[in-house]
């Protein structure tokens, strides 16, 4: 399966099979998260990913890990660790989404979780350094194909399958002109992968503006006012890192060479909630 096909087919899994993850798959996971190159974001910020093995949602240390009933039969958790700043959150989400896609290709189910878990219980398992915190986790395990009704019900509640159309998310030259798929040219598929990507509560806060010469794609965030404010960090910044990963992964597979840069084009913004983050510049 190609990476683009993986992104198209991947869905959050909340109900897992009781079968343990095979030692071969665990070895691949350990090798991935222990490879320092996999933990560095596109602009150089670095995070950490820890693995916690569980039985009946209880860790080897005897700590019950809280997910408020959203996750059933996880065989473990992968826990993200980084600092709480705009750049580190964006880049770490890029790193974490790459891991999610890697796991999906292995046949292992995942579910991005930024707010619906008990951080205190996970912090008891993880050695946090000064200034570090846990922005996100994912349960892991093989999807339970026979008991997906719970997953489908939750997808309906959070409107996970109701993705916004292009004319609400993607623009040409300025925020005043919507971008059609035809106008996107070679970027049609990478931009569509952004649209299909996961986001907190399916808010899809990413806004993309493709330059007139179709060489630079600017990434913005349209903040949802007060969203996740009680968590102590801007969870929607993770969504931009996910979007970056989706976009770049598709570009690489389609041989569209480029790099991430921070060069604000100073476009007229549509509202006060919209903020420039980063740009993809083709070679």
Note down, in words, how this protein is organized:
Strands 1, 2, 3, 4 and 5 form a five-stranded antiparallel β-sheet that branches. A five-stranded mixed β-sheet has the order 6-7-8-10-9. By secondary structure, the protein is an alpha+beta fold. The chain folds into two domains: 3-150, 3-Layer(aba) Sandwich (NADH Oxidase), CATH 3.40.109.10; 166-282, NADH Oxidase (3-Layer(aba) Sandwich). α3 (86-106) crosses α9 (236-253) and α8 (188-196) runs antiparallel to α9 (236-253). It has nine helices and ten strands.
What is the compact description of this entry?
The protein is an alpha+beta fold and 283 residues long. It is built from nine helices and ten strands.
Q: Which word captures the global form? A: globular
Strand percentage, roughly? 15-25%
CATH fold field value of the largest domain: NADH Oxidase
How large is the count of helical segments? 9
Give the termini separation.
27 Å
What structural class should be given to the helix and strand makeup?
alpha+beta
Number of separate structural domains: 2
> What helical percentage do the residues reach?
25-40%
Please describe the biggest sheet, giving its number of strands, its sense, and whether it closes into a barrel: 5 strands, antiparallel
Q: How many DSSP E strands?
A: 10
